[in-house]
Each structure stands twice: as C-alpha cells, then as structure tokens.
Amino acid sequence: MNPFYRIVRSCGLFVAIGISLSGSCLSMADEHKKTLLLYHSGLENFDSVYMMSLLVELENKLSHYKIKIINTGDLNIAQLKSQLEESESCVLTIGQQALETILATRDKTPIFSTLVSRINLDNLANSYARLGSRVTGIYEEQSFARQLRLSRAINPENKNIIVILGRKSRYYLDDYQVTTKKQSLNLIFDILKHQESPQQSLTRLSVNNGFLLILNTKQQYSDQDLQSLLITSHSHNIPMIGNKASDSKTAALASVYTPFRILAKETALGLQQTCTRRQLPTVKYAKYFSVAINHQLAKSLGYDSIDEKKLTKEVLNLEKKHQSQTENLKYE
C-alpha cells in the first residue's frame, strides 16, 4: 500500500506516515494560529507525490496556519458551511468534486483550487462569481500555447494543428485560433456531434499529417478514448501532444506537463498570497513545466531521436522569443 494512504490523525491534523512535518501536534502557540482548511474528496484519488509535497510546502510557506484536512464526504453542506463560518480560515480544495462541494455552501471565503481542468475551473469560478463566491487557483494542465510550442520543437516543418472539441471546449475555439495564429501554425478543428467519439471525428477530418492536441476534458479524452484514438491517429500519421504527464503514458507522443512537486510549490506560493496578503491572484497555469516522451511511440513514428531535456529547453527558447517579439511590438 502506498505510504501516503496509511494516515494517522494526530492532534486533529492528518500526517502522512514517513514525513516529518513541523507542528503536527497542536501546542499552546497553535491555539492562536489561523486555520487552513484543506478539502478533498478522498485521498486515494490523488497522487501521493503531490499530496506529500503539498503538505511539506504548506508547512514551510504557511507555518503560522494550522492545517486541517477534511474529506468533504464526511460532512453535509450545512456542516461544511458552519465550519467555514466559524473560523477565520483560508481554503484550499483538491480536485473538482471538493471544489463543487465547497462552492455549494455559498460561503464567501476565497477558495484556492488545484487539480481541476481549465474548462471546469473557469466555468465554476464564473458561475459562482455571480453569487459572490471568489475562486482562484492553478489549472491542472499546461497551456495550449505550450502544447503548440512543443509540437514546433518536435517538428518545426509540420504546421498542421488539429483539435477535436466537445460540448464545453468548443467555447474556447476563438482562443485556440488566436493562439495558433500567433505561432504561425494552421488550426484544423472539428466539433463532436452527439454521442460521437474523437476517433470518429478524426476519421471524418481526413487529415494525413499534423499534430493532434489533447485537451483536458475527461468526457472526450478518457483513457479508453485515448487508446482508441491512438489507433486512428497512428494510421493517419498524426502524433498526439498532451498537456499532462498521464497523456504520454496513455497515448501521446509527448506531453508538456506540470511536475507534481512544482505544482505543490506553486500552490503553496499562491495560497501564501491569498491567505496572508488577502489578494486574490488570477487563475493561471503553473509557471514551470517539463516534457515527457512516450519512447515506444516515438520510435514507431520515426521520432526516436527526440530528447525530453532538449525539448524542454527548446520550448523555453520559443517562449522567450515570443515574449521578446511581443515586447518589441509594444515600442514600435
């Protein structure tokens, strides 16, 4: 069993076995600390590296807060609302289910969210903003722009970029088109029909070269969908580019992704700004990233010479070049 899931309750705080966390037991000084409420929907649903790294980072960056970890499934909405109202607290939610549950309390405490896709986090933040709830956080995936740069780093001659849009992701089409045009690439898109699979959509497009960019929508890019899509994309010589590490494990030639330790560090920094400075930063992608390669796929597609470190460096170079060009345009 993963050591993180063997947890103990010590003085009201969950502590992962095998990690030494300062202040894990409440002292007299702890009584005067503010509270960081960390909500989740089941620890077994999340990667242990992320959760362990997150606890360490929170202890370091928010040492003047006592951390209380709560499974939203253990309390009803009224109890959660009462918990939020009774303490001067800061709130972190892990995963979409926990975020939705805390938002359902209609409490006005600012929420910092992590491990939620851009599409779902934007939708929830905008919907509940009208009710007075304030949400910020870090998107689960890396950006579409960085996926494009990764495709350019792999094969600068291949200008075709393909996206298959679903019911929610279609509203980002304008953003995708503008972002693709800025990188001098050609966007080919299709919107899934009712009950249609991504592989059916790709077959209908009849494109025989390019890169297919995976979007972070489980409704259309589940592991099962990706496995089926891999067969179709391979037959059309269209490698997939992911935005999470798991994409490369499943079906993508390569992915630009946020390492869990980096996500934990940036989450803690974002919470530090939200909790201690009472500033609500803009929802954003993680600043730092890495590249993962599916070497078996790379070999079968003729990309056996690509290297993760070199691709990461090239994506950064393309990003710096774009920023430099943008700055120059401001002063022309």
Descriptors for this entry?
single chain, about 325 residues, alpha/beta, Rossmann fold, 2 domains, six-stranded mixed β-sheet, 12 helices, 13 strands, disordered N terminus
Query: What level of helicity do the residues show?
Result: 40-55%
Fold-level CATH name of the largest domain? Rossmann fold
Rg for CA atoms:
21 Å
CATH class descriptor name of the largest domain = Alpha Beta
Determine the N-to-C terminus distance: 60 Å
The strand line-up of the biggest sheet is: 9-8-10-11-12-13
Q: Tell me the total number of β-strands.
A: 13
Structural class: alpha/beta
Q: What value does the average pLDDT take?
A: 87
SSE sequence, one letter per element = EEEHEHEHEHEHEHEHEHEHEHEHH
Structure explained in plain terms:
This protein is an alpha/beta fold. The protein folds into two domains: 3-140 and 259-276, Flavodoxin domain (Rossmann fold, 3-Layer(aba) Sandwich), CATH 3.40.50; 144-257 and 302-330, Rossmann fold (3-Layer(aba) Sandwich). It has twelve helices and 13 strands. It has helices at 48-61, 77-86, 96-103, 118-129, 144-154, 173-182, 198-205, 223-235, 245-250, 260-276, 295-300, 308-330, and strands spanning 7-10, 13-16, 34-40, 65-71, 89-94, 111-116, 135-139, 160-165, 186-191, 211-213, 240-242, 254-257, 290-293. The strands form three sheets. It has a six-stranded mixed sheet, sandwiched between helices. A five-stranded parallel sheet has the order 4-3-5-6-7, sandwiched between helices. A two-stranded antiparallel ribbon has the order 1-2. Residues 1-29 have low confidence and may be disordered.
